[in-house]
Design brief:
The complex is a heterodimer of chains A (about 130) and B (about 140). Chain A has helices at about 45-65, 85-95, and strands at about 5, 20-25, 30-35, 75-80, 105-110, 120-125. With about 130 residues, chain A is α+β, with helices and mostly antiparallel strands. Chain A has a six-stranded mixed sheet with strand order 1-2-3-6-4-5, with helices on one face. In chain A, helix 1 (about 45-65) runs parallel beside helix 2. Chain A is globular. Chain B is α+β, with helices and mostly antiparallel strands and about 140 residues long. Chain B has one domain: RutC-like (60s Ribosomal Protein L30, Chain: A), CATH 3.30.1330.40. Chain B is about 20% helix and about 25% strand. Chain B has two helices and seven strands, in the order E-E-E-E-H-E-H-E-E. Chain B has helices at about 50-65, 85-95; strands at about 5, 20, 20-25, 30-35, 75-80, 105-110, 120-125. A six-stranded mixed sheet of chain B has the order 1-3-4-7-5-6, with helices on one face. In chain B, strand 3 and strand 4 (about 30-35) form a beta hairpin. In chain B, helix 1 packs parallel to helix 2 (about 85-95). The longest helix of chain B has 17 residues, at about 50-65. The radius of gyration of chain B is 16 Å and the shape is globular. Chain B starts with a strand and ends in a 16-residue tail after the last strand. The chains are: A alpha+beta (about 130), B alpha+beta (about 140). The interface of A and B includes residues 28, 79, 86, 99 and 101 of A.
Chain lengths: ~130, ~140
């Protein structure tokens, strides 16, 4: 089965060169952990909510490169630095995941490398996309 | 392909949301994070780790049961512990529920978003998976 990868931008040298933002294998797309940095300007969001919005925009952009949207997401795994931000993350997520699309979500609190406030990885499926 | 989802608890009671305990697409079931909560109250069953671990596996068993499979269908599992001291107790509990199959398991120590829970588990199950374990050929590891 062929693999196809995609990266939002050229990865800095300190990142493992084999790391990729997304990997498609058959009907499944694995999106690696995304965070609140604009891939065009390199600027980080200000505050958790903006980090969450940028994170979802990055995910949306990656999915779009494969012809998908957030309705194809089946599972998410999110790490937040501060557990009290979880409700904000859920609120922002609902702006991107269409109503009626159910997602097997997992949330964990874990310190991220500054200035990252959250990191979300996603599994999407081509065979259940809207 | 149709997306199917089953929940232990009516999450809609807490307002519109996309969270679900599990999504099935084709032969694959993706489980959302599970903890040792009573599905009727969403509260932890106990402050004791082993009791939470047993309840977590019961919850997973119930979710998978709604797809007519048991815990032996799990192929991958990630466990987030609030403390590494829980690892041995977790392994013993898991083996009680997963009797005929191995699992690709990964464990982390981190903080749990809801601190009353001592750990959280996420898993992927495969409905057609037969429990076959391939051992390393003799001498291959040397």
């Amino acid at each position: 089965m062929n693999r196809r990868t995609f990266d939002l931008w050229h990865q800095p040298e300190y990142v493992d060169p084999s790391r990729t933002d997304a990997m498609r294998c058959g009907p499944t797309l694995y999106v690696a952990g995304q965070s609140g940095q604009c891939p065009v300007t390199g600027k980080w969001g200000v505050g958790f909510e903006e980090h969450a919005v940028l994170t979802w925009k990055n995910i949306e952009l990656i999915l779009g490169k494969f012809g998908l949207d957030c309705a194809a997401i089946v599972a998410t795994l999110t790490f937040v630095s501060d557990p009290s931000d979880w409700d904000t993350f859920v609120k922002v997520s609902r702006l991107f995941i269409p109503k009626g699309i159910t997602v097997a979500s997992t949330g964990v609190a874990s310190d991220r490398w500054p200035p990252i406030l959250l990191e979300t990885s996603v599994i999407a499926r081509f065979d259940c996309a809207s | 392909m149709k997306r199917e989802h089953h929940d232990l608890y009516n999450h809609e009671q807490h307002g519109p949301g996309s969270y679900t305990d599990s999504v099935r697409v084709g032969s694959t079931i993706y489980l959302g994070g599970q903890c040792g909560y009573d599905p009727r109250t969403m509260k932890p069953v106990s402050n004791d780790f082993e009791a939470q671990a047993v309840q977590t596996m019961k919850n997973i068993e119930a979710i998978l049961g709604s797809y007519a499979v048991d815990c032996n269908a799990i192929v991958s599992m990630t466990i987030y512990f609030a403390d590494c001291k829980y690892f041995d107790a977790w392994r013993k509990v898991r083996q009680r529920f997963m009797t005929s199959s191995a699992v690709a398991a990964t464990g982390y120590v981190c903080r749990i978003i809801w601190p009353e829970f001592l750990f959280e588990v996420t898993a992927i199950a495969y409905i057609d998976s037969a429990p076959t374990h391939l051992s390393m050929p003799t001498g291959a590891a040397s």
